Amino acid sequence: MAVRVGVLGATGAVGQRLIQLLEPHPDFDIAALTASDSSAGKTYRQAAKWRVDSPIPNDIGEMTVTATEPGEVPDDIDLLFSSLPSSIGAEVEPAFCEAGYVVSSNSSNSRMAEDVPLVIPEINADHLDLLEVQRDERGWDGALVKNPNCSTITFVPTLAAIAEYGLEKVHVSTLQAVSGAGYDGVSSMEIIDNAIPYIGSEEDKLETESRKLLGEFDGAELSHNEMAVSASCNRIPTIDGHLENVWVETEDELTPADAAEAMRAFPSLDLRSSPEPLIHVFDEPDRPQPRMDRTVGDGMAIAAGGLQETPFGLQYNCLAHNTIRGAAGASVLNGELLLENGYL
User: Fold this and answer.
1) pTM score of the predicted model
2) Long-range CB pairs of 49-55, under 8 A, 24+ apart, other chains included
3) 189-238: per-residue pLDDT in tens?
4) Domain chopping of the chain, boundaries
5) How would residue 72 be classed by pLDDT, with cut points 50, 70 and 90?
6) pLDDT at 184
7) Record's SMART domains (predicted)?
8) Domain covering 150-321 in this structure, CATH number
9) Which residues are catalytic, by number?
10) Which CATH architecture does the domain made up of 3-149+327-340 adopt?
11) Cis peptide before 277 (omega within 30 of 0)
């Protein structure tokens, strides 16, 4: 029997992608859609300005959108997927958790809270057990789990694959697609024939979230990885797919061949949305490229290439689809992990 789920912030870009991924999912049944008060009471087809590259599923289009409040969502919902703006999520998500709902959230609020698991299932599935600490400390019957920022998700799996060589310093420069800013986030006059070498708060997210993801959980507390991380984030005129240039200094000698082998061998999980392989490594020096490679593994895999030795350690490029693997797909995968581990 499928798990009844709801989508918080269902009319936004990530909410739409969540619906696209959840509607055919055999383990999940969409039973609630929420949005702003101005959308509440309308059918989803009326409320959403649909922009995903497939039609609105007919049954979803006729569902009535409710306000984003615990009292407006049926209490028999087993799991909520949140794509709320962080300012709203910071207030609303704890209220849902206190009311007994389990929330798998893409929103940036609370990602760095000590008792909130920040999870990429293939990397740190054991961090999910922080939910026991969270429930004890907050007195919640529900629970809150986060997936990382879309750019963090892109390069951290490649770091996890080579972590055995001893990660010391990581430098990452991102070339981020405009969809990462939302439909109205960057005007055409800003981005056409241009690149914007600053994205507010993005550098901090990459530098802090990566260390939390690669940290160690002892069953009671989470200690962050001690590697040094510096990031520079840039917006470029691609639609989807975040491309990143990475330099890594390791304690032990790490050749490009060693790194490629480790990335290719890094395991995926026996979850529906976890791709095989997790990391697709290209031998060609000019790959990966956003337009050509963002949909590897149905948009859930990480693409890597251009591995070479430099005076600053190993250098390589990596790429992920920012609204699938980097956002909606990551939340769905966390939902699968919650189900697999008996939290629903």
Assistant:
1) 0.97
2) 49/11, 49/183, 50/16, 51/13, 51/16, 51/183, 52/16, 52/17, 52/19, 52/20, 54/20
3) 999 999 999 999 999 999 999 999 999 999 999 999 999 999 999 999 99
4) 3-149+327-340, 150-321
5) very high
6) 85
7) Semialdhyde_dh
8) 3.30.360.10
9) 150, 242
10) 3-Layer(aba) Sandwich (3.40)
11) yes
